[in-house]
């Protein structure tokens, strides 16, 4: 905090009261009384009660960023950096539950927060995660095709839902105990997979992926087989072993896409494969927002971070929904397809938290910015598939 004793006293009083009672149930007079000042003094420093709330977070995040700055220097390995950041976040939340309550229940649920200057401190915090991921890519520790923005959302999402499950769901006594389970889910998503190098992926799909990218960037007429071969890491002659020419490649792309979507549609109804069931559930859940945009906005801003939500029938239904996720995971473990050490509860928090952060970015933070949500959903499906699979054959599935 700054060197102004009165302002600091107001912030501390407001932090204690609002974290316990909520913003709506807290009055300026009550804060003034706790801080030992008059109401008018509060309005001298803050525009209104909401500005005071957001300022609490801004000041608190300064302390968080300073503490994190003391933790990360000297850690060179990107995996260790990311692990340290996850541990720091969980441990800080466990040690400062009142501050976390303000962030989750009061700030994240208020759309005005994303326009307030204090939100910049949250952007700095998430920026540290991005820099760690980018550092890992540069050092060839993390995958070069990694979408760092999606991973950032997934990391922050699982950390927030871990806190929710602890503070609201009472599923755990603390969140730091899930540290290893969280890291064990994140690392398979982002680290280079030595057991499945890119060259081990069957050549036809690699060629089609490369052709799709080159056609999209340069246009069909300007694209060349040589460019496609280079991107697919095959010889030009190899392409002609599978496709007659450039036009055949062009028409093969929608053929495979349509086939994939038809299979996905079928998977929503019935499939014997736990991995396909999991992929279908993820696609369905992440695509849901586009059909019911208003509902999702209400849920993200006003429901999920509402203190009263865990006591509602709606919350119970949500838990029944996640039971389906548990059944899929257990089925996959039983068949030897999914890693047996996966913590189902932590996976649920990663699943719900990832959707929460990504959807908030789509709906709130990016405003009119166009986001290729369909592509991002497919990337998320791929990431979740990577982290659950137990063997090489399933990694190809």
Summarize the structure.
This protein is mostly helical and 397 residues long. It has three domains: 56-142; 198-259, Homeodomain-like (Arc Repressor Mutant, subunit A), CATH 1.10.10; 265-395, Tetracycline Repressor, domain 2.
Strand-residue proportion: under 5%
Number of strands: 0
Described by the principal axes of the CA atoms, the overall outline is elongated
How do the SSEs run, as a string of H and E?
HHHHHHHHHHHHHHHHHHH
Mean pLDDT: 86
Helix content estimate: over 70%
Structural class estimated from helices and strands: mainly alpha
Number of domains: 3
- The CA-CA distance between the termini, in Å, is 53 Å
Residue runs with pLDDT of under 50 for 5 or more positions: 194-200, 392-397
Q: What's the architecture of the largest domain in CATH terms?
A: Orthogonal Bundle
Biggest beta sheet summary:
none
CATH topology of the largest domain: Tetracycline Repressor, domain 2
The CATH class of the largest domain, by name, is Mainly Alpha
Radius of gyration: 24 Å
Contiguous helical run count: 19
CATH superfamily of the largest domain: Tetracycline Repressor, domain 2
Structure commentary:
By secondary structure, the protein is mainly α. It folds into 3 domains: 56-142; 198-259, Homeodomain-like (Arc Repressor Mutant, subunit A); 265-395, Tetracycline Repressor, domain 2 (Orthogonal Bundle), CATH 1.10.357.10. 71% of the residues lie in helices and 0% in strands. The chain has 19 helices and no strands. The longest helix has 23 residues, at 49-71. Residues 194-200 and 392-397 have low confidence and may be disordered.
């Amino acid at each position: 905090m700054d060197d102004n004793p009165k302002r600091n006293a107001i912030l501390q009083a407001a932090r204690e009261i609002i974290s316990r009672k909520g913003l709506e149930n807290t009055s300026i007079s009550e804060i003034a009384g706790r801080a030992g000042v008059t109401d008018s003094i509060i309005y001298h420093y803050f525009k209104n009660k909401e500005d005071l709330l957001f300022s609490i977070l801004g000041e608190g995040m300064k302390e968080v960023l300073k503490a994190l700055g003391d933790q990360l220097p000297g850690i060179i390995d990107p995996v260790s950096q990311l692990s340290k950041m996850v541990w720091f976040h969980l441990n800080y939340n466990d040690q400062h539950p009142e501050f976390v309550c303000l962030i989750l229940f009061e700030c994240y649920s208020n759309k005005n927060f994303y326009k307030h200057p204090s939100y910049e401190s949250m952007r700095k915090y998430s920026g540290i995660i991005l820099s760690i991921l980018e550092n890992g890519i540069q050092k060839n520790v993390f995958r070069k095709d990694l979408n760092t923005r999606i991973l950032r959302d997934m990391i922050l999402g699982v950390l927030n839902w871990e806190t929710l499950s602890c503070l609201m769901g009472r599923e755990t006594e603390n969140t730091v105990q899930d540290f290893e389970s969280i890291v064990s889910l994140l690392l398979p998503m982002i680290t280079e997979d030595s057991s499945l190098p890119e060259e081990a992926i069957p050549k036809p799909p690699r060629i089609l992926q490369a052709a799709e990218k080159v056609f999209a960037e340069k246009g069909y007429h300007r694209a060349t087989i040589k460019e496609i071969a280079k991107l697919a890491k095959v010889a030009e002659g190899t392409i002609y072993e599978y496709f007659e020419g450039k036009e055949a490649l062009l028409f093969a792309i929608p053929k495979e896409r349509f086939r994939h979507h038809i299979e996905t549609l079928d998977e929503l109804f019935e499939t014997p494969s736990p991995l396909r069931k999991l992929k279908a559930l993820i696609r369905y859940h992440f695509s849901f927002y586009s059909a019911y945009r208003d509902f999702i906005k209400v849920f993200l801003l006003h429901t999920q971070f509402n203190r009263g939500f865990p006591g509602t029938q709606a919350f119970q239904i949500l838990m029944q929904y996640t039971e389906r996720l548990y059944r899929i995971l257990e089925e996959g473990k039983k068949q030897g397809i999914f890693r047996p050490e996966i913590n189902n509860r932590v996976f649920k928090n990663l699943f719900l938290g990832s959707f929460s952060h990504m959807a908030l970015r789509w709906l709130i933070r990016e405003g009119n910015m166009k986001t290729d949500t369909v592509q991002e959903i497919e990337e998320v499906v791929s990431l979740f598939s990577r982290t659950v699979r137990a063997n090489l054959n399933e990694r190809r599935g």
